[in-house]
Amino acid sequence: MSEAPKVFTCSWGQLEGHGSNLGDRIILESQLLDLRQSGWEVGVASSDPVATRRDLGAIPFDTSRGRIRAMVRGVSWADAVIVGGGELVQDRSSLLYSPFNLFPILESRRRRKPCF
User: Fold this and answer.
1) Rounded CA gap, 69 and 103, in Å?
2) H helices present in the chain, as ranges
3) Longest C-alpha distance within the chain, in Å?
4) Does residue 11 have a pLDDT over 90?
5) DSSP string across 81-109
6) Residues 60-93, buried b or exposed e (16+ Cβ, 10 A)?
7) What pTM, to 2 d.p., does this model score?
């Protein structure tokens, strides 16, 4: 029996853990449900790895030692990457918001992995 394909999702719904807004959490939970039903094993960048594994059943990539580091580990682990699941562009945040959201896309491209 072959191993399930792996997807890493970079979603603000779990990056902020229990501090995420309801919309971001619902988007993440819907992604997880659809991906699992399609046979994917799912990894998530997470600020709360214990809750991610327990409540969502996803593989957590802990952001406590740095979000970029978690993104690199997640992209390395995965066969494909999904970016989004909430706002990708804001008008009231730091200047690093957009480059941070672009990083997993660039890392996926560098590693020649599909990114959606």
Assistant:
1) 11
2) 12-15, 22-37, 49-51, 67-77, 97-110
3) 48
4) no
5) EEE-SS-S--SSS-TTHHHHHHHHHHHHH
6) bbbbeeebeebbbbbbeebebbbbbbbeeeeeee
7) 0.82
Token pair, residue 107, equals 């890392």
**Tokens standing for 60?**
């957590």
β-bridge mates for residue 60, sequence order: 44
- Other beta carbons within 10 angstroms of residue 103's beta carbon come to 18
Q: Residue 99 above 60 pLDDT? A: yes
Q: What is the phi-psi region of residue 39: left when phi exceeds 0, alpha when psi lies from -120 to 50, beta otherwise? A: left
Token pair for 80: 């494909």
CA pair distance 2, 39, nearest whole angstrom = 11
Q: Six-digit token pair at 31?
A: 């992604």
Tokens 């562009």 — which residue? Answer: 89
